[in-house]
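Data availability (excerpt). The following record was deposited with the supplementary files.
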Amino acid sequence: MSQTASPATGSGHRMSVPWARMRSLRRRLTQTIFAFLPLVLLAAGLPPFLAVLPAIYPLFVLLRRGVRRLRQHVTRTGLAGEHGIRLLLGLLPLGVAWAQGAAGPVGWIAVALFSLLPLAELVVTRVAPGRKLRVSNLPGIQDTRGPKYPVNLLLVVDLSVTALATILLLARVPAWALIILPVLALLLAGASALDSFRRIRDSVDSDNGLYEAVEAYDPRFILYYGVPAGSAYQIGMWITHLEQIGERFIVVLRRTSAFREISALTDAPVVVRTNIWQLDDVVTPQMTTAFYVNNSAPNVHLVRYPHLTHVQLLHGDSDKASSFNPVTALYDRIFVAGQAAIDRYENNGVHIPSEKFTIVGRPQVETVQQQGPQNVPISTVLYAPTWEGHYADTNYGSLPVGPDIVQALLARGRTVVFRPHPFSYRNSEAKANIREIHRLLEEDAQASGRNHLYRAPAEKELDAFGCFNIADAMISDVSSVVPDFLYSGKPYGLVTMTSTVAEFEQAFPLARSAYVITRDLENLDAALDELLISDSKADQRMSTREYYLGPFAPENYADAFLDAARHVVRIERKPVTALGAQIDEEANGGAGRSADESADSGAAGGAEDGEAAFELDEQNGDH
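Predicted structure:
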């Protein structure tokens, strides 16, 4: 499904044919036919050495895919899409022996065992994931160890011995002599299954001791994260500052897929709790506070603990609809960067008591360098468009006109730093525009010798603030990078994709101190003249910076956040009666558990989607 807005539909989404999935199904069907064809040809009386030739194709594809999974340490198998093919290939030695005749009793047992290998795979792959307690850095608790035998090793061995047995049978090796091959493969499967059961037992034992371990560690607050892998930057932007509070804390995740990337960000304990009732194992009476970095649905599962003060941090501040989400009213405290965030809720009809808000600035921008003489005249411009959003009301991305904007900057002899939002790579139209911009920058670099920054150097090797410090000015749209860049004091331009300049400035106050570019680009030259040369809004930008980022001096700017966070964690505790309050799920109509079951279902679906995406990549390589 395309993520781009469409005037023809109310949701802004356009349905598209899932060609990649259809190609995947077509390849699977072709492999199945080629695996089944040898059995038909053997039954028809064709000589075995000719009949088995079609099986070479699926055997080669599955073996190569299995070896690739082993090299990349992929823990999932994708067996659901392959199992029918593997069953047919497992019958191949039996079919060849039948065509040759006179295998003998032991020989028939040997070739029959090959057909059992795919059935053993079902059992092993089912128990291999086990019941995993995922935890890191928590004294007294070990993370569930990985399997001794990678599950994909079993699948590669099964295919290898099946192919070897078929070749040996064609070479007239007696069938009874092959019995060692399936026996060894079945022994490996049994050892793998036994190891999985032991890991499950160890995980259960550790899980039962988790609460005591958390209580002994004695954390004062929780950093809670309820979404899958892929958005670790939301935790990354806050984790360093939360560590500076000076109190012990734990990170609680709700999706296993996020465990590795979050664990790599901190030395604090990280624990995965996938079910709502499992949260009881990580919430102790000594805890005072829970911090949240987004408004994901699973947050309500922790908000129900009444003795905690629940503080929403969010993961950026902008004039987007997500920055005045009514769900934010759920929390006890809302830390915001400046008065603009408070007014944004009120101006959009979201009424939240003023005492819930605390202005703390944006501690992350402390590393952003202020505008100085080295930034004038403007020679380097950062173009940082946002992504297309999930919905029509959050589709502010300017990439559809991005190539024209970059071309205009190049025509004026400017060096360009291009940093698109990582989510834009999920959208085919946005990805095409990114490729076009890359092409323009590459051609200009060869022709002019200018050192443009794009692809990995701008998107991986540097963070957003690193790109800010390199640039003298920025062009963006409605994005959280804009108020962060505002801290630098450097000029910036914004692209309006949905309205006139006047309407845009009314809806998004940040635009009032920006040089606004319309979607039709009619005022592009005039806006670039202001941005790159005149900069008539320099004074207005200074007052806007205080409105959006708080009235804090650049020296020790992050202290405002640390002081507020320490006050909540150490001083501002809920009444003692909240400690004894019981959490009654039935009183909520079971809403918490229902939501959790939906979350678990979504997690499973997400895992399947991730595996499906991996499969598509593999099959494209096979193709």
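Summary of structural features: The chain is about 50% helix and 10% strand.
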